[in-house]
Amino acid sequence: MKHKDQEESAYDTLADLPARLTQVLAHQGISQTELARQIGMSPGFISDVMRGHKRPGAEFFVAVRKLFCVSIDWLMTGDGTMMGDVGIRHELLQAIRIQIAVARAAVNEDDPAARALLILIREGQLVNAAKDAHFQGLLERIAPTDRDLDLAVELYNGHLGATDPIVQRRNLLAAAVAHFEARKPIDKMAAMTGLPKATAPSRVQINTGRRQRIAGNDYIDHRPQGDGKK
């Protein structure tokens, strides 16, 4: 119930988006048609957004941010000021970009350390990775790339309102993993036979303080989880 309330609250903040966009247009001295031209979107779509009939995605917010240096936080929620006195939470955006890099390594490269790290995040045991050499080595090897920037902004916008940081991390990783899983090349033989694709088992040992185990292939549950405690 708490998670549903938070989703409704995040949705309500976008109800005032047309008013904030009107301020942006007035500040820049341009029309809706000119805005559409400059960000490469149709005038009809911009008109629907301005009337509150449609909710734009990450591409729209990034385009407006790049074009006018407007705070995405302010544009989406009204927090701070138009030009970003209280702007993007850079530490969260940077963390998301690292999480995306980990998800890419786990899914696309089948990296055992990345898969093990996803298990710790899923179980809320990330603190146990802080001094582990495997994970330190992983974070030194991987690096966020600009090709994933749009995905990072989309996840940032979608999970900004989360109040539980552990659940937020878990849901962000689930979304990132699902993104890469959906884009993996299809194993035609596995699809025909119905048999799962064989993967090399991970041999990274996870020490959670209470037990030790070996990371397997069940690295993450793709279903987002709520902020409320059961």
What does this structure look like?
By secondary structure, the protein is mainly α. The chain has two domains: 12-77, Orthogonal Bundle (434 Repressor (Amino-terminal Domain)), CATH 1.10.260; 90-214, no CATH class. It has helices at 2-13, 17-28, 32-39, 43-50, 58-68, 72-77, 90-108, 112-122, 133-141, 149-159, 165-181, 188-193; strands spanning 205-207, 212-214. It has a two-stranded antiparallel sheet. β1 (205-207) and β2 form a beta hairpin. The chain is globular.
Helicity level = 55-70%
First-last Cα distance: 11 Å
- Number of E-type strands: 2
Which residues sit in consecutive blocks of at least 5 with pLDDT less than 50?
1-11, 199-224
Number of helices: 12
**Could you say which overall geometry the principal axes of the C-alpha atoms support?**
globular
Provide the gyration radius in Å. Answer: 20 Å
Q: Which oligomeric state applies?
A: single chain
| Secondary-structure element order, N to C | HHHHHHHHHHHHEE
Q: Find the structural class using helix and strand composition.
A: mainly alpha
Nutshell version of this structure?
The protein is mostly helical. It is 57% helix and 3% strand. It has helices at 2-13, 17-28, 32-39, 43-50, 58-68, 72-77, 90-108, 112-122, 133-141, 149-159, 165-181, 188-193; strands spanning 205-207, 212-214.
Distinctive features:
12 helices; two-stranded antiparallel sheet; mainly alpha; 434 Repressor (Amino-terminal Domain)
Give the topology, please.
Layout: H1 2-13, H2 17-28, H3 32-39, H4 43-50, H5 58-68, H6 72-77, H7 90-108, H8 112-122, H9 133-141, H10 149-159, H11 165-181, H12 188-193, E1 205-207, E2 212-214
Antiparallel strand pairs: 1-2
Helix pairs in contact: 3-4, 7-8, 7-10, 7-11
